[in-house]
Amino acid sequence: MMKPWPRIGRIETITNERGRSLRRETFQSPIKKEEFIIFNSDQGTSAVVMPITEDDHVLVIKQFRAGANHVLLELPGGGKNKEDATFLETAKRELLEETGYLSEEVVPLSENEIWQEPVICTTSFYPFLALNCRYVSQPQPDSNCLEMVKIKLEEWLSIIGWGLVQDSKSLATTLIALKHIKRL
User: Fold this and answer.
1) Residue 25 lies inside a defined structural domain of this protein
2) What is the C-alpha to C-alpha distance for residues 173 and 157, in angstroms, rounded to an integer?
3) Cα dihedral value 163, 166, 170, 176, nearest 10
4) Among the four 2, 29, 47, 90, which has the fewest Cβ within 10 Å?
5) Exposure string (b/e) for 68-86, b if CB count within 10 Å is 16 or more?
6) Nearest to 78 by CA among 19, 27, 2
């Protein structure tokens, strides 16, 4: 039976700034009995929401991502604030901040967190679907370096199929949301 590998020694924090940390951790391989050193990136847990408007548009964010060195298409989302009691509240807040839209129908898509890159990251997210989103105000994002665009639901699924959406959180959230979208 597969079991977690034993951690050897202590976790060494190399740097910790702006809500992100880089840690060195050592594990022992149960088969070869060798040390396995990883440099673990941690950005915490976030909420990602797939917002669909009343007229079947997906609200998508264009944002530069340094790790990819590209402007990527992503679903709205972000980390939990002190005011957020739950990740559902985080999803609703991020939707409003990044798009200016609200939804009365925000559906959690998984009880479990989803790991973004479990080989070297402890960063995870909870996916949500927001239906019948309606515009209420100008977006108020934490960063002015993003742009919100509306894409027809069928087109969003098409550009995903062509490999043009490169953000794994958005891909996973869309895939899980498909069973809840009754119009397809």
Assistant:
1) yes
2) 12
3) 40
4) 2
5) eeeebbbbbbbbbeeebee
6) 19
Question: Does 157 reside within a domain?
Answer: yes
**Per the structure, how many domains does the chain have?**
2
Question: Does any domain span residue 1?
Answer: no
How would you label 7-41 residue by residue, b for 16+ Cβ within 10 Å and e otherwise? eeeeeeeeeeeeeebebebbbeeeeeeeeeeeebb
Measured distance CA(31)–CA(14) in Å, rounded: 28
Residue with tokens 């080989």: 119
Residue ranges with strand state E in the chain: 7-17, 20-28, 35-42, 45-53, 57-65, 70-74, 77-79, 101-102, 105-108, 114-115, 124-135, 146-152
- 149 has a pLDDT exceeding 90: yes
Mean pLDDT of 94-108: 96
Instruction: Indicate whether 142 pLDDT > 80.
Output: no
Per-residue pLDDT, 10? 85
Q: Do residues 113 and 29 both lie within one domain?
A: no
First to last CA, the chain: 40
CA angle 139, 131, 144 (to 5 degrees): 15
